[in-house]
């Protein structure tokens, strides 16, 4: 399985390098359209190779997707934290009840053995 993963990454690298080499022509990227730039009085433009725009778009898409997914899963993360706290509380309560039961029965050895365990 490891070799298949390495082969996939190598193939992806070859494709991306071929894409970059085939699209080296410079293009001008403008922040605002020309008419709006005149109205605002601010114009910013860059001259970069086309493959930089391709790769930049891919990276921006991944970042937006990661942030979107992180925000979407916030409800599940908070529910998991709540369940974890409740689980810890219930384990402590069960340990305390075991000790109380052993003390009521009068067996101190069992009370010590069944006492709260800390890992």
TrEMBL record:
Protein's UniProt name: Lipopolysaccharide assembly protein A domain-containing protein
InterPro entries found in the cross-reference section: LapA_dom
GO cellular component: plasma membrane
Keywords: Cell membrane, Membrane, Transmembrane, Transmembrane helix
Limits of the Lipopolysaccharide assembly protein A domain: 23-94
Sequence intervals crossing the membrane: 48-68
Entry superkingdom: Bacteria
């Amino acid at each position: 399985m490891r070799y298949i993963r390495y082969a996939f990454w190598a193939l992806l690298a070859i494709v991306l390098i071929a894409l970059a080499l085939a699209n080296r022509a410079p293009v001008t990227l403008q922040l605002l359209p020309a008419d709006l730039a005149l109205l605002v009085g601010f114009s910013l433009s860059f001259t970069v190779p086309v493959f930089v725009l391709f790769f930049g778009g891919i990276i921006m898409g991944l970042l937006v997707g990661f942030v979107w997914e992180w925000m979407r899963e916030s409800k599940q993360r908070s529910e998991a934290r709540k369940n974890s706290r409740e689980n810890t509380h219930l384990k402590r309560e069960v340990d305390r009840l075991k000790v109380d039961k052993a003390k009521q029965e009068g067996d101190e050895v069992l009370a010590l053995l069944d006492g709260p365990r800390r890992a």
